[in-house]
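Sample pair:
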Amino acid sequence: MDYFVELHLPTLFFVMAAVILILAGTHVMVFLAYPEMPGVKLCALGNFLFALPIFALFLLPSGSVPAFSVLFNTLMTSGFLLIYLGIREYTGNGVQRGRLLLTLAVFSGTYALFLSSIPWAFRTVAGLFTLGVFSFMTAWEACDGFRRIRTARSVFAGIFCLHGVFLLAFAGAGLDLALSGEGALGQNPGTLGIVIIEGTLAALAVNLSYILLITDLLSSRLARKAETDYLTGVYNRGGIIQMGEAMGQEPLSIIIADLDLFKKLNDKYGHAAGDKVLRNFADTVEKNLRPWDALGRFGGEEFLILLPRLGAERASRIAERLRWEIEKTEIPWESQPITYTVSMGISSRGENETKDLNRLIAEADEALYTAKSLGRNRVVWFDSGQMTIVRASEPLPGREA
């Protein structure tokens, strides 16, 4: 501890602020090179907000720091909040209302403490505690609730977890100082030196791991481009099969969808209209899927939908909702709108079942054949060798699988 007491704190503050600004600059450069990169603007702004009070601490006389503690804590907490939301955008989760309300509740509670009449020492503790909580929340979002763990995301999440542990430890140390009447954490040069050094190292590590995240996303996009159908933008046949095989034996429901009487639609309106219908179908399906579901063009006007960890009944409800959405769709085209319908076949694999992807596809294809033969524009579920019309919920005599 004596060693840290001897460190020149203004220099440490300057180094820490400079490192965080470099991190923000990295985000800006990534944004300029790849403006479509998700979350980069929020992360850049968050780092700028986080660096401002650190530079202020370096420039202001020490006696004036308590007077600006509300502003400093608010800027730093706002910065972490924006970084957290940026990582949510990066993972494709966006800002869901429930999660946003929880986040705003944490932020508002902390801000209320900042504005209260409690001593500056306790406000600092509240700020460190909130930053620690946001660190763990950011780590959680980086791995999408640890459902999709990749090397780059694991490194990023690990760094934020460690940073969260340190911040909570510092909050505990600050609380101990405040309760013992020894002043605020910032008034103890030795402890403050450790805080600054840890923050600087964390910023450097976050910068490196962020570059890993961007590289990982770019490589994923390149791989996805090779697996993408040029017309609809969804997976092509090879890509969707690869996705399905990568799921191993986890519970899975699949839907095979086939646009009804598509050849007649092409003959009547032309191939340009047919292409527009295919794109409309793909867009409609993607808007109704979860972030970890997958859609691929299986061939011609046939599509394959993968619904991991979803049972047959919920998959049937999704399929029926999609069928209904398509049925009421009107696509503007020249003198009259185009309407179309879709038939779907469903097959599922439960927790203890060992069906491979080929068998699931064969069962769903059989269910699709039944849907077509019964008049099209319906969903049929392959259920233990029997065919069930989802809308009617009446089992039909089926063939044994």
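The beta strands are 252-259, 294-299, 302-308, 342-349, 379-383, 386-389, 394-396.
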